[in-house]
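Fold tokens
===========
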Amino acid sequence: MQPDLFSTPFTVSQLTFRIRRLLEDNPEFQDVWVSGEVSNLSRPASGHIYFTLKDKNASLKCVMWKTDAARTRPNLQEGAAVEVHGKIAVYEPQGQYQLIANLIQAKGEGALFQEFLRLKSMLEAEGLFSSDRKREIPAFPQTIGIVTSATGAALRDMLNTIRRRQPLARVILAPSPVQGVEAPPALVAALRSLNKQNPDVILVARGGGSIEDLWAFNDEGVVREVANSKAPIISGVGHETDFTLCDFAADLRAPTPTAAAELATQTTLDDLRFQLVNAQARLTGLISNRLTDHQTSISALGSRLKFVSPERRIQADYQHLDELSRRAFSALTHRIQLHSARVDGISSRLQALNPEGILARGYAIITRKQDGKVVSTVSQAQGDLTVRVSDGDFEARRNS
């Protein structure tokens, strides 16, 4: 067929782009599950995963980008029958369509996943996963219950972790199958048995596996038993990317069994030693401060006691008495001096008026012998007279 003279033919890029738009704009092709067998598996250093999904009649190129591969960690092997979820895209440089995968699971897991979603929706609507139901994990549990397989590596890892971090804790094991049809009733019985022994916390754990391997922990009866447990529960089922309904019902989810044991032993032996050292240091400091305060108080009381003590009062009274004695002696001395000066003055005046002093200067005192009167005038000098001079007296007579 010859091209229309009045139409412009598509370029390869234009046609490929239109095909891409048709496929990628169709919602039906943007959310698809495809089952088939893995072939041509390639894991380059970039971290992306390339493989072909085929059945007996056709094949489909597939790619899982690095971020989805790191998140889901698919277990892919050549020839494995898988179910792949993703969207259809066109790789324009080669003009081929391919499936961009974001989830890969073993064939048959798709139905289990749908059942997982149904149970999750139902139990979530009942409030079994509500955050209001979550309880605090005790920081220092004395008794730790474990529900897991008695022969699995998960138990060994948890016991080693508990022994290393908190060797004082008592561990009660309620062994149970963790896989297969006998696992769900055994897990329920193990949880009930442990709750009768009143542990501080219970670990429900097992190692990783496929959704089929972990399905016992999605069982409705097991999930309800976890939600109704008297003791708080830490769920450590599978690996970090594995989620089960027990994880949502538990009080705390751990990414691995070992992590569950670590979360159950938040306070380690080293933490206790550190807290003990700190407590001892604080106690020593408090005691030292208290002793210092009391010593200061005692010293102050001692000073006050000395100030009001009888001895101090007596000493003060002694000192006051000494001061009064000194002042009295000083006053008495001053008074004596004053009186001495007055006596000396009086004595001087008396001495000045003493007749004997006058006599010593050559004067004489004349008295009449008959009546002893002092003769002060010539007319009085009659008869016998007594003349007194400085060294004695003698008699004299005045003749008329």
Summary: DSSP finds eleven helices and 13 strands in the chain.
